[in-house]
């Protein structure tokens, strides 16, 4: 939980703007506005907005800040982590050659293959393979979805390989994948650089230490920065990625406020009282866990993050035959109220939803606890409308198709 607008201000904002009031217990979801932007970043953005700056100078200052926090040689800020992946792949394809950068994506030259474990070819709202292709890369899937061996990567790396891409995320298959260190050893053995998509990870140093040549982060996820991406790594590759702003990066342009806001968020990250935030998050989890006691068929457990971020969530598992309703139905009912409470439901087919405490404003934890009890009491009395989890997935595309349809 972060310092954030007080509840009253929160709700009056929604009334005045005509937007749906909501509480985010799903995590750092870009579809909900990512995260609560920290005060330091908000102030920095307000400071720079009315001024002119030399953008290369600002990016050089960002590079120093990024280097300090990540241990990288250099870095820069771009529009998003997804943009960071495309620019890093482009860098591996063209090297430090502006003429070749201008020829992307249609004429990448002979070395444009990007090796990715099949289980890492995930969607974060868009297919990651497309972020590679945007840069003129060709995705070479390695291994099978739940089973990858060394020789499969070794064979995939050939004279046409520009990079290996490794994704650290709850979106990827969580077993049977090659550890980053091994992936990097094999890539480096073949003279191939490794790009790590660590968009949603707290650890700013570990992936570079484990052999990544470039690590890409989102500024707007756990860092609580503005919408932006951070590219950090080997100086030559970072410079080649920055050069892509002459080409495909033009449509991924980042503004002065996002660069400066990201720098402030990084600085604030250093000073943040992570232990105190963790304690408040754990308090919220226990409050919700208590609120769920005594409902037949409903089990609430505090579970660690699957990629080892220092964050726990409340897993609400529902035995449908005992409870008479599913976990997905609870999520749907919570989203239908006002304020809408948006839960983490991407695994609801497995019989559970999760509550993520990392984006709670003051007062929100209590509202969630009350609504949990209301929804579950109603559910016990009258049952719940049952959503179809696959149809919920289709809903992501439906929302785009329906937008402004009439
Ligand atoms: C969120 C996410 C992205 C996209 O990040 P943006 O900064 O919103 O572009 C990419 N990869 C992974 C693994 C993510 O979790």
Main features:
43% helix; binds pyridoxal-5'-phosphate; 16 helices; alpha/beta; 406 residues
Word description of this protein:
By secondary structure, the chain is an alpha/beta fold. The chain has 16 helices and twelve strands. Strands 2-8-7-6-5-3-4 form a seven-stranded mixed beta sheet, with helices on both faces. A three-stranded antiparallel beta sheet has the order 9-10-12. The chain has a two-stranded parallel ribbon with strand order 1-11. Helix 9 (206-209) links the parallel strand 6 and strand 7 (214-218). Helix 2 runs antiparallel to helix 11 (256-271), helix 4 (81-94) packs across helix 10 and helix 12 packs parallel to helix 15 (364-382). The longest helix is centred in the C-terminal third of the chain and has 19 residues, at 364-382. It is globular and about 65 Å long. The model is unreliable at 1-5 (pLDDT under 50). Bound molecules: pyridoxal-5'-phosphate (PLP). Residues 30, 80-82, 124, 167, 169, 171, 197, 199-200, 218, 229 line the site of pyridoxal-5'-phosphate.
């Amino acid at each position: 939980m972060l310092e954030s607008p007080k509840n009253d201000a929160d709700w009056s904002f929604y009334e005045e703007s005509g937007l749906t009031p909501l509480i985010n217990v799903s995590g750092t979801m870009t579809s909900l506005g990512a995260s609560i932007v920290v005060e330091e970043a908000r102030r920095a953005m307000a400071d720079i907005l009315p001024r002119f700056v030399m953008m290369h100078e600002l990016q050089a200052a960002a590079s120093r800040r990024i280097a300090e926090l990540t241990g990288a040689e250099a870095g820069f800020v771009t529009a998003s982590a997804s943009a960071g992946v495309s620019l890093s792949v482009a860098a591996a394809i063209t090297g430090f050659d502006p003429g070749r950068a201008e020829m992307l994506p249609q004429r990448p030259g002979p070395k444009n293959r990007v090796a990715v474990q099949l289980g890492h070819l995930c969607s974060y709202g868009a297919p990651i393979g497309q972020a590679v292709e945007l840069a003129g890369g060709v995705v070479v899937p390695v291994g099978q979805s739940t089973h990858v061996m060394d020789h499969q990567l070794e064979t995939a790396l050939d004279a046409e390989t520009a990079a290996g891409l490794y994704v650290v995320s709850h979106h990827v298959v969580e077993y049977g994948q090659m550890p980053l260190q091994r992936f990097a050893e094999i890539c480096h053995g073949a003279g191939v650089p490794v790009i790590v998509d660590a968009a949603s990870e707290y650890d700013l140093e570990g992936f570079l230490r484990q052999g990544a040549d470039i690590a890409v982060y989102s500024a707007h996820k756990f860092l609580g920065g503005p919408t932006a991406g951070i590219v950090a790594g080997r100086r030559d590759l970072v410079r080649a990625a920055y050069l892509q702003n002459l080409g495909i990066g033009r449509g991924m342009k980042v503004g002065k406020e996002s660069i400066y806001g990201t720098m402030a968020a990084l600085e604030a990250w250093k000073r943040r009282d992570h232990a105190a935030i963790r304690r408040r998050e754990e308090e919220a989890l226990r409050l919700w866990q208590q609120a769920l006691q005594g409902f037949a068929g409903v089990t609430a457990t505090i579970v660690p993050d699957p990629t080892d971020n220092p964050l726990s969530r409340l897993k609400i598992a529902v035995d449908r035959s005992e409870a008479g309703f599913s976990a997905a139905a609870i999520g749907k009912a919570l989203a239908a109220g006002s304020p809408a409470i948006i839960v983490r439901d991407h695994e609801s087919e497995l019989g559970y939803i999760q509550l993520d405490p990392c984006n709670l404003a003051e007062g929100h934890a209590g509202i969630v606890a009350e609504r949990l009890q209301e929804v579950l009491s109603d559910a016990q009395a009258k049952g719940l409308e049952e959503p179809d989890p696959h149809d919920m997935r289709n809903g992501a595309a439906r929302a785009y198709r329906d937008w402004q349809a009439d």
